[in-house]
Amino acid sequence: MDPSSECHIFLTSFVKKIQRMATKNLSAYDLNSVPDGKEMKFGIVVSEWNYEITGALMRGAIETLKKHGVQDDAIVVNHVPGSFELTLGGQFFAEYTDVDAIILLGCVIQGETRHFDFICQGVAKGATDLNIKYNLPVIFGLLTTDNQQQALDRAGGKLGNKGDEAAVTAIKMVSLQKNFEYESNIE
Q1: pTM of the full predicted structure?
Q2: Strands, E, within 18-109: which ranges?
Q3: Which residue of 61, 116, 152, 157 pairs with 167 in a disulfide if CB–CB is 3.0 to 4.6 A?
Q4: pLDDT for 124-156, tens place per residue?
Q5: What b/e readout covers 31-69, taking b as 16+ CB neighbours within 10 angstroms?
Q6: Tens of pLDDT along 68-102?
Q7: Domain that holds residue 70
Q8: Nearest-angstrom CA–CA distance, 174 and 187
């Protein structure tokens, strides 16, 4: 088989896989793979900008946390004006509360300027910095889409809810951290 035929077969297979992914709920997961969250406490920071989207992400995250045993009083939600402020809101949780993890939820939709790039890069770096500075799981739940429909599809639409995914990630990371802490205390 010549290289161009191999490339064509690969690309055809790749495109079909992407098309399947674009039509299935990407937030589906094995419920049994998620630890019990009843002894965990979470802070959620939600951007008010694009609230139709971020409110849906928040509702998904809260429902998922509760589904896995997290008590109502162990879920604290605060709002910030926009996505750029998510990391400072996260820092406030880290400094002034006793949460086990922080979930940052926002939505930035591509416009005609580079503003999108600066916001997305700033929040990604800020979330990473918070993880390291506070040794606390800080979950990046920022949708970065080309248009409103892509955001809706990922906020409870046909592709699931990234708020659900952020909550599952938070529970798993808290469990992982607690396991490491437990193991280090045994030695």
Answers
A1: 0.85
A2: 42-47, 75-80, 101-109
A3: 61
A4: 999 999 999 999 999 999 999 999 999 999 999
A5: eeebbebeebbbbbbbbebbeebbbbbbbbbbebbeebe
A6: 999 999 999 999 999 999 999 999 999 999 999 99
A7: 39-186
A8: 21
Domain-embedded: residue 103? yes
Return the pLDDT at 93.
Answer: 98
Residue 162: inside a domain, yes or no?
Answer: yes
Judge whether 8 counts as a catalytic residue.
Answer: no
Per-residue pLDDT band for 10 (boundaries 50, 70, 90) equals low
CA gap 57, 63 in Å, rounded: 10
Name the active-site residue from 8, 68, 79, 115.
115
Q: In the structure, what pLDDT confidence band is assigned to residue 4 with cuts at 50, 70 and 90?
A: low
Into how many domains does the chain fold? 1
Mean pLDDT of the chain: 90
Assess if residue 10 is contained within a domain.
no
Report yes or no: 113 and 85 within 8 Å, Cβ to Cβ.
no
Any domain includes 102: yes
Q: Which residue, 165, 141, 134, 177, is CA-closest to 25?
A: 165
- Length of the chain in terms of residues written: 187
Domain CATH for 107: 3.40.50.960
